[in-house]
Fold these 2 entries.
Entry 1:
Amino acid sequence: MTGELSRSAMPGATGVVDEDLEAYETNYQTHRTGISTEECIQCYNKTAKKYEENLNPSRYRGYVIAAEAVETFYGQDKSARVLDVGAGTGFLGKELEKRGYTNIDALEPASEMLRLAAEKGVYRSLYCDVLGGSEVTIPDDTYDVLALSGSMGEGHIQCKGLAEMVRIVKPVRGNIIVSNGDCFLLLSPDQIPILVDD
Ligand SMILES: C[S@@+](CC[C@H](N)C(=O)[O-])C[C@H]1O[C@@H](n2cnc3c(N)ncnc32)[C@H](O)[C@@H]1O
């Protein structure tokens, strides 16, 4: 799967150092133009075991930024009900646990990623589901905060997922927090330039 694409064929890869290029390509392949939801989930299932090595803290800290934002809004309320949307292997859940949060659930469609997230022991409920397809099984107005790190983009959560997020977040004092590399948002034609903030 990796080694197929040259640096110039991958937007955003120009400044990537050689030793990071294979990891960059694995991540890029999951966001490539035209990728379907099913193909994206399959990619993550195949590469789940290497995910934390590929996106190690020297390369990726989207989940730290998301956790900081949760603290900005819920610094005084460590029992706030949080859904980690597109939880992957649980980087964000672990980061929130470190900061004292105790009431965290995970939603993640790639079963291999979710299995690794479950092993971290930080999530109360785990949902293996796609956000943005049919309605997920979570009732209306459930969460104080939905937190997403790196889970929007081509083949990932799309604009149409926003309506479902609004349905399950509490209407009063609820927040949806998105921490996402803007290059992945801008790669996708349907996607979310509207969310990209300079
Ligand atoms: C780059 S990973 C980020 C994982 C984790 N949030 C982190 O910060 O490490 C993107 C994750 O989004 C998930 N994902 C993709 N499409 C999704 C969808 N429609 N609904 C929910 N999660 C999705 C993928 O399976 C993958 O685990």
Note: The chain has a mean pLDDT of 90.
Entry 2:
Amino acid sequence: MFKLSGVILILATFTDVIWCQSCPSGFLHHDNSCYSLIRVLASWAEASVYCQAIGSHLAYVEDASEHSFVEGYLKREDTTIMSDGIWISGLTYLVKDDWQWGFKNTRIANTFWAPGEPNNDRSSQFCVMYKKGSYMWDDNECQDTEYFLCELELESAPGIVGK
Ligand SMILES: [Ca+2]
Ligand SMILES: [Ca+2]
């Protein structure tokens, strides 16, 4: 009996360590998420598949605090960014100007558009990226190839991390 509780205790401790807020290598930690700038040119759809394949998703930048973190991260990486922008998960489809987080199926509540955006240039811009330089949002053509930002939400154990 003592041995069994010992094992349980060790397991519980180990689980705590797993749940402790740590990110996989190559990801940067902020609040309850991990972020990785993927320096590969990809369409929005290819970027989505890539993020999902590594257990994450294109970033959902949902509030001012998250935006300011992402903006700072991208600005620090500016010299390594060889694309016009960095895809995140936002897109509009079927209904004009109905901006959603792709694959999450929730409407975007807070937006961080660059001045003059979204301009739906040539009536064909349906996907959201951070514009290189200003690091604010720009709607762009989904098939354009850009670097992109994956986000991975950390597991949170009730009572340990708290959400
Ligand atoms: Ca997020
Ligand atoms: Ca635009």
Note: The two ends are 35 Å apart (CA to CA).
